[in-house]
Write a structure and sequence with these properties.
The structure is a homodimer. Chain A is of the alpha+beta class. Chain A contains five helices and five strands. In chain A, a hairpin with a 6-residue loop joins strand 3 and strand 4. Chains A and B meet through helix 3, helix 4, strand 1, strand 2 and strand 3 of A and helix 3, helix 4, strand 1, strand 2 and strand 3 of B. Chain A binds a DNA duplex through helix 2 and helix 4.
DNA sequence: GTGATTGCAAAGCGTTTGCACCGTA
DNA sequence: TACGGTGCAAACGCTTTGCAATCAC
């Protein structure tokens, strides 16, 4: 997350969106303002509520479609609740980095003291009391290459 | 992921489940067999299909309920597709570790060359061609403590 | 025997889609 | 003016739930 002021970030995002050929509509601006200014991970429904609270007239569908654009441009990233699950695989998330092949679904769980130590240190540095980890990387496995 | 044989892992899991007071029903055994033997991240529906293919008579609801138990006992962990999203937050997932407070939703994006280097090295060691990263840790933030 | 577990089917809920209208460029 | 974007509402699909029947212990 960069350290620019909210307004500068908003302008940067709008500029990037226009550069990519998107039209700067009021709905889009509203979503950008909400997400760019927030220091919180927001659900689409929360974005909708905040945008509407800020006077904007906007629909659910547009929120989803706009968030998609922001992700596409890498201005925004998605956060995954540890409790939310799409797939299940043997292993204990608290002590492993999971390497997953998005093509075939194969997964390898990797134990790495160094990695865990590093992650713990980062959390401590920022004053967070660590609860859960979600360390997963996605790559094409040897067989699918 | 431990290196034991499938059968031993199945027995270990069943033992742990019984220890926790769960009854070892045919449906539960079927789910355990499928997930413990697989080296793939499976969706609940895939688990269902595989269990049914293996002769078991089992319903969707039971698959969900059984997977919950396995996660609770930390025998299984959930995998999150990079494309699936619950919340959105400013930042670029490819270069950051996200620290999130599950209580208030606050998030801090951390850049760490060492962490990224370590992750890249691990992927390479295992023969994976890295595509996406999902490095997120959850901890109570200073203000919520 | 008895209380946990299951199957079924309905309900739930966030997300996606189709389409006519609107507004940016 | 043209066509990308929007709102609405219906459709969708995975997940959850209620309840009676079942079965592990």
């Amino acid at each position: 997350m960069d350290e620019s002021t909210p307004q500068i970030r908003i302008d940067t995002w709008l500029h990037a969106l226009r550069e990519s050929g998107y039209r700067l509509t009021p709905s889009l601006r509203a979503v950008v303002a909400v997400v760019a200014e927030s220091h919180h991970a927001l659900t689409p429904m929360q974005v909708l509520a905040l945008a509407q609270a800020g006077d904007a007239e906007i629909s659910r569908a547009t929120v989803y479609r706009t968030l998609e654009k922001l992700v596409e441009l890498r201005l925004v990233q998605t956060v995954h609740d540890a409790s939310d699950c799409l797939r299940y695989v043997a292993g204990d998330a608290d002590h492993q980095l999971l390497v997953i092949c998005p093509q075939c679904g194969r997964s390898d769980a990797v134990q790495s003291e160094r990695l865990m130590g590093l992650v713990n240190a980062i959390a401590a540095d920022h004053g967070y009391r660590l609860k859960d980890r979600l360390l997963q990387i996605f790559g094409i496995c040897p067989e699918c290459q």
